[in-house]
Design goal:
The chain is α/β, with parallel strands linked by helices. The strands form three sheets. It has an eight-stranded mixed sheet with strand order 1-2-4-3-9-10-11-12, with helices on both faces. Helix 2 packs across helix 3. The structure holds D-malate. D-malate binds next to helix 3.
Amino acid sequence: MTDTNGANDFIHVFEPGTDPARPPLLLLHGTGGDERDLLSLGRTVAPGASLLSPRGKVLEGAAPRFFRRLAEGVFDEADLRRRTDELADFVLKARERYGLPAPIALGFSNGANIAAALLLQRPEILAGAALLRAMKPFARAPRADLAGKPVLLLSGALDPIIPAANAEELAGQLTAGGAVVEHRVLPAGHGLGQADLALLGDWLARI
Ligand code: MLT
């Protein structure tokens, strides 16, 4: 079901799950994607889970994103903070509307970056997160209580957008908040491959 109004006015898709043991997934697409992009990935790695998939509201040219950037990898942090709250409030309203427990975020690239921002700025919103090709969203991370929250961080050793040290620092910020971080660096670039899917499916089945 695609919805263009209600739930804080994010265009989004909600697919009800069939397996109540699976936590819902909050799917967050990359730059230029939309609310349909990660649905089949979500169905593949978490069969039976409810899927909540909003479209980012910021347009870079015609490309939807979840927050503004000043250049590739250089973020407008004031906009990021505002957009993070907006997305957090959307999740709260959608949980009420669809009767959902706190979701696990599954984000790719720009979607992974706002998922990391949600963890750091509004830690109560997510039960955990899988961050695919994420970088540090904030130069200085807010102090967040992430005690026991599972986080999977999948980075690409050949990623031309994200320096290895940046992803390491993000892992450190999340670990400092108490998250249980699994950080794997794959022999890959910015795009996803079979190894990502396998690790993701395995992690989701374990948490
Ligand atoms: C971002 O802007 O969030 C990152 O540079 C990743 C991207 O979307 O290209």
